[in-house]
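Quick note —
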Amino acid sequence: MTMSDRYEEVLKHYPLQVKSVRKGRGSWICETDQGPKCLREYRGTRKRLEFEDQVLASLKGIRGLTADQYVRNEEGDLLTAAEDGVRFILKDWFGERECSMKDGREVCRAVRNIAVLHQHLRMVPFKEEWAMGSTMPAGAGEGLKRRNRELKRARTYIRGKRKKSEFELAVIESFSGFFDQAAEAAQELSGLWETGEEPYFLCHGDLDQHHVLMGENFVAVVEYNRLHLGLQMEDLYRFMRKAMEKHGWNQKIGMEMLEAYQRVLPLEEKERRCLYYLFLYPEKYWKQINYYFNANKAWIPARNIDKIQSLRQQEPARQSFLSVLSAW
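Predicted structure written out below.
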């Protein structure tokens, strides 16, 4: 059964008229008489889907902010199976473009609406039946400590090699400075709150420019499949880091984003410290080494060497922003 056969069969279960269908990112975008819809294969649990649907329903009606809502089929179900058993979901969708990380004003507008989203997610009462593995906090500090163990294993492996590549030499030369930051960030973040005092709220879980769509009079935050109970500062950090990398760690842009967030949802002192430690962790450095350690080490693409060198070149600007953020 082809994908084309599947989506045609599945769409017959919805009370709408399909005008056209085009391929999207891992999905099908459908133009219908009820506006654009997104059809996507679903491999999760029904309980998880119902959890997301209840949370998204609570976000309806927020001025200036919208989210992709699930559409139920004619039987009132969120899931629709094709003849071969493959299950699909249908969501309201948008024709707006993704947020441009190169546009400082647009980035600040997006951050302001992320704060609006966080503010409303804090008001969603967490229900016990939602307390499944995919929604419970993992602990940011513990996650960073796990990454640090991976960094150490990679360094040990590289040290043991007799003949080292250019990439491996660059890693050995830069490792100490970056790992010191990684160790401090993991340690301080782990001890920031006493157990049970962490400000856990519902978080988007995957906030980047691809999931923030810019409308003329609204911002749409989409794709909540990683929605979970955790630290909302991780959401803010993820989006801000992407923007800061695009802007060469420009302090002005960074502080403008923080002020845009603060005007909607003021941060407490420990939340500010949390954000600082998240930024202190050299995530791009860890990603490069993690990719290397888990890939074919016999051939290392030139772009990976360039990325390590680029990180070292950007480090003064990054450290300058960290100093401003620490004093903020």
